[in-house]
Amino acid sequence: MDTVKGSDGQNAGRPDKRAERSRRTREKIVAAARELFVAQGYGATSLQEVADRAGVAVQTVYFVFRNKRALFKDVVDTSIAGDVEPVATMERDWFRAACAEPTAAGQLRAHVRGVRDILGRVAPIMPLIAAAAATDPEIAAQWPAGPDPRYTVQHAAAKALTSKPDARPDVGTARAADLLYGLLSPELYLIFVRDRGWSPDAWEEWACAALTAHLCTDHE
């Protein structure tokens, strides 16, 4: 079978090696920055330290991210997403699959599992966001006032859940969204897992049981 070539003579369909190298470099920098931010704080971490940890020149860090604020924002965004792909949470496969479950109980199990994965990445950096935003107005401006994106996600999940046949008829979408938003919060996750020493498995089991009791008709 002949290899199809593009107009520039390159093999069509062949991955762009330069783009792949750039992606890997970006991932290394973000991973190194996350480790350092969590270990020693945003303010105490220099871009030179990030470069050293990532094994790249500091000029590369500046070229990719311009400054530490932009790098910090990328650390937060990729912690939420789990990767560098620009796909919103509600468009992620796990969220869509959870909402497509035929029962409220099934959706809750899948939803809590997906949120657990996110919280395992995000919860440790939540205190960093608060501390950095309190001391740097430009950091705070990266998360403008308005509807909380996390609540928007939970409201969408609640809307799907309350339409299921085993959803409690006396709990509307707004109340269900509040319960999801509160019980699946990073703050509550940290209280149980970091402060009280629960395993993520134990937190997931508790959160699923608590939400099922509040939101489903058959939870015995």
Keyword list:
220 residues; mainly alpha; elongated; disordered N terminus; HTH-type_TetR-like_transc_reg; transcription regulation
What's this entry about, in short?
With 220 residues, the chain is mainly α. Helix content is 66%, strand content 0%. α1 (17-40) packs across α2 (47-54), α2 (47-54) crosses α3 and α5 packs antiparallel against α6.
Shape: elongated
Oligomer: single chain
* Unreliable segments of 5+ consecutive residues: 1-10
Helix content estimate: 55-70%
> How many distinct beta strands?
0
Structural class: mainly alpha
Give the N-to-C terminal Cα separation: 61 Å
The largest sheet is: none
**What is the averaged pLDDT score?**
87
Number of helices: 12
Residue fraction in strands: under 5%
Secondary-structure element pattern, one letter each: HHHHHHHHHHHH
Radius of gyration, in Å, reads 21 Å
Describe this structure in words.
Helix 1 crosses helix 4 (68-81) and helix 6 (104-122) packs antiparallel against helix 12. The longest helix has 24 residues, at 17-40. This protein has helices at residues 17-40, 47-54, 58-65, 68-81, 93-99, 104-122, 126-135, 137-141, 149-161, 173-183, 186-195, 200-215. The protein is 66% helix and 0% strand. By secondary structure, the chain is mainly α.
Mind sketching the topology for me?
Layout: H1 17-40, H2 47-54, H3 58-65, H4 68-81, H5 93-99, H6 104-122, H7 126-135, H8 137-141, H9 149-161, H10 173-183, H11 186-195, H12 200-215
Protein name: TetR family transcriptional regulator
Region (Disordered): 1-25
Pfam families: TetR_N
